[in-house]
Amino acid sequence: VGQFDSIKEAVMSATYTHSYIGEKLSETMYVVPPSRLINEIPFAMKQLEE
Questions:
Q1: I need a surface site. Which of 22, 42, 44, 47 has the fewest CB within 10 A?
Q2: Where do the YjeF C-terminal domain residues begin and end (predicted)?
């Protein structure tokens, strides 16, 4: 929540990021373990920042 002005914005961003990572990983993986998704968060945030 610290980077956002409201909880709603934080939740919307987290949901989008989660979906973005899941879509990217599903291109090469049939099942995406939660730990793999978590490991991708910093890389996805960097990509989404650009």
A1: 42
A2: 1-48
